[in-house]
Amino acid sequence: MRRWLLRRTAQAAVTLAIAITLLFVLMRAAPGDPLSRLQGDRLLSREEIASLRERYGLDQPLLTQFGAFVGGLARGDLGVSIEYGRPVTSLLAERLPATLQLGGAVILLNFTLGLWLGVRQAVRRGSREDRWLTVASLGGYATPSFWLGLVLAWLVGVKWGLLPPAGHSDPLLDSGAGFLERTVDLLRHLALPVLTLSAVTIATTMRHQRNAMLDVLRDPFMLTARAKGLSERAVTWRHAWRNALFPVVTLFGLWLPILVTGSVFVEAVFAWPGLGSLAAAAVGHRDYPLLMGAALLTAVLVVAASLLTDLVYALLDPRVRLS
Amino acid sequence: MIVTGGEAPIPIPTLMEGAQATLANFEVADQLFLRLAALGPELITSGDRGFLPLLAREWTRRDSVTLSFDLDPRARWHDGVPVTARDVLFTMARARDQAISPRLAGLLRHIRSVSAESDRRIVFQFSHPYAEQLYDATFHVAPLPAHLLAALPPQELRRSAFMSNPVGNGPYRWVRSVPGQFLELAANESFFRGRPDIDRVLFRVAADPDARINLLLSGEADVMDNIPPPPANLERVAAHPDLRLVRVPSPAIGYLLFNQRDPRDLSRPHPILSDINVRQAITLALDRKKLVRAVFGTHGEVPFGPVSALLWVRHGAPPPLAQNQAMARDLLSDHGWADRDGDGTLERAGRPLRLQLTLPNTSAIRRQLALLAQEQLRQVGIAVEVVQLEWAVYAERRNAGLFDIDFNAATQDPSPSGLTQSWSCGGGSNVAKYCDTGVDSLLERAIRSRTGSRDTWHTVLRRIEEDAPAAFIYAPTYVFAVHRRFRDVAIRPESSWIALWRWSVDR
């Protein structure tokens, strides 16, 4: 186990190094730079642009810039955002909690409700419930998140006034508000973005789980389990479900980074202060330091998710050895 | 609760440079830090009258290059320390340092020296006589507290505790900022010009216009700045019984900028657009009123010259040319353009009258206008290909002069002297390389004129209109929404919330 962990960590470090180098080069190879945009938009003179270029080190050769970035990275310093004028690490740290709340809630909903519904569909294959859930999941899968978000925000937030149509928390909430009050406030704000993002992801989880369960339910060992006199609940959840989890765990590994940085539209529609919109704006602004920081975080998440997926495989299946 | 599209991460004078020179930062800074004087209701930037005292109680002109200011002795920083001449000197020294504040240093370049004659009296010396000396001395930067910052090296300020808890002298004091969400200010109880009636102000950030409108309509926000087109957005807000709309002149202007140089070889004149007749014909072929009405409804107008609704020189300017497609066709025909092959596009010497119109893909307004303009130009035989580019790519190509027609949208400050940036031969933002020495000398005369003659400025605008370096399309009026429980509402074009402390509220 230790050797496996060491090997995977070394692999992860190499992957990250390659990813960072590629990102750095590709970003600078892309047309446009952060300061020419300002020159066009905010009427800065050439002298001012030159001064800013020097301030941000953009006047240095590419290799020097890369060296400065790597040196900073080694010290835990990702530089200062050109657009925000603040340290990138602070910006990422400020946005990460909201991102984890949104992504975490969606994953939680997926791996509870989504899995449960998928299993129910498989167990009741061909029933009216299965057919309805299939239609619902396909509907959810086919619904664009940004459209659903707009409709929910207007209908639930504005028209019915049941939930806040946007934002992360109520700014008017008393600073002395207790934990419970704050949690309720957060959940109220979280509800619509989570519902919007989950509509697509739960549908996918349900379809994957249903199909995996159907495959497992056809395996001979299921007959054995039933022949041993096990209850249908035990057969389903203890024997079948555990074996049907593999494709869904893979899905989790793929989703984790996407949920962290990929929910740009939903963050925009609900004014959710997450990393997705921050990263998207950084791309548009060519805010190199912020973009590198966000990309680095995503790369770390991809690698971490892959590592976690392997660990979960091993936990689920004793035949998988971490060596 | 004000819902706004932009975050204000650094609302600190002298630090709002480069990408931080944003409207959001300026507007929050105006709540925290007072300038020496404010622009009057007419927004006239010339001369010494028409300004309102703020931090300075009064000012005196000593000669054509010297102005002295007397600080209001009641002025205090939020920590109770009196505001003194030392604060002004300290801030002006930082603002005029090219290494610290390149943008401000450029704007304050005509100030030769700033000195203190006493704790309350500051003297500004200018390098030469010109009309906007008072404007330059008061508008661009508000004093910072020297007693808190003088010991701090300039490069340390961004990392200092002052950033997370700035101490100002304005009507509102800093409470907290939750990045990406909101920024909270509280009334300065001992504000020397009178305690604000509104106790607490929250600037809530929602970059997406739909999210902002939803927050407003659901009652989660009291005020929304600049409701964006389409007009349907305004109709939704106007239909709300608790909200009223407030029209505010905007600093924005949009125009089709004609490149004078050939984008394929910048050393040569543009093969089509260097001809003034083609430029004039394009302007005449466009029904600009219809374009503005289609996108902005009644909340915009066609400008005369490169002048937004914010600039005082627009008052009394002649109306812009109306569409006249017959005249446009004649103008082109008289100069050899004809549709000889019957494909609907004019040609001259084998060269079709075909141009690319570039714009950023982030601007729905410009995209819609570009498509409408494309159709109007097609009717007179001018083929326009609309090319939408990603923002950074668009800006890079624009700055490099790689375009035929650029659909530019500029934001102007209240001073007409800023026009030199884009419309004088050596202007730093003159990417189309428009050059008319006559315009240059007129600009120079208008800027230097001590009286800031409106007539001289109108001559400048007329000359630019005749040259047609661009077709000036729109100067919108911003529309704000304000809850009806607020009274004495005044939203200022140069800084939306600068008069917020005078608003009152039904309790």
Integer tally of domains of chain B = 3
How helix-rich are the residues of chain B, as a percent range? 25-40%
CATH topology of the domain at 96-274 in chain A: MetI-like fold
Strand count of chain B: 24
Under CATH, the homologous superfamily of the largest domain in chain B reads Dipeptide-binding Protein, Domain 3
Q: Your description of this structure?
A:
- The complex is a heterodimer of chains A (323) and B (507).
- By secondary structure, chain A is an all-alpha fold.
- Chain A has a domain at 96-274: MetI-like (MetI-like fold, Orthogonal Bundle).
- Helices cover 76% and strands 0% of the residues of chain A.
- Chain A has 14 helices and no strands.
- Chain A has helices spanning 2-29, 34-42, 46-55, 62-74, 88-123, 128-142, 145-159, 179-217, 220-227, 232-243, 246-261, 264-269, 275-285, 288-316.
- In chain A, helix 1 (2-29) packs antiparallel against helix 14 (288-316) and helix 5 (88-123) runs antiparallel to helix 11.
- The longest helix of chain A has 39 residues, at 179-217.
- The termini of chain A are close together.
- By secondary structure, chain B is α+β, with helices and mostly antiparallel strands.
- Chain B has three domains: 2-32 and 151-250 and 479-505, Periplasmic binding protein-like II (D-Maltodextrin-Binding Protein, domain 2, 3-Layer(aba) Sandwich), CATH 3.40.190; 37-149, Dipeptide-binding Protein, domain 1 (Alpha-Beta Complex), CATH 3.90.76; 252-477, Dipeptide-binding Protein, domain 3, CATH 3.10.105.
- In chain B, the strands form six sheets. In chain B, strands 1, 8, 9, 10, 11, 12, 13, 16, 19, 20, 21 and 22 form a twelve-stranded mixed beta sheet that branches.
- In chain B, strand 8 (172-178) and strand 9 (182-187) form a beta hairpin.
- In chain B, helix 8 (276-285) packs antiparallel against helix 10, helix 9 packs antiparallel against helix 11 (364-378) and helix 14 runs antiparallel to helix 15.
- The radius of gyration of chain B is 24 Å and the shape is globular.
- The interface between A and B is large, with 58 and 57 residues.
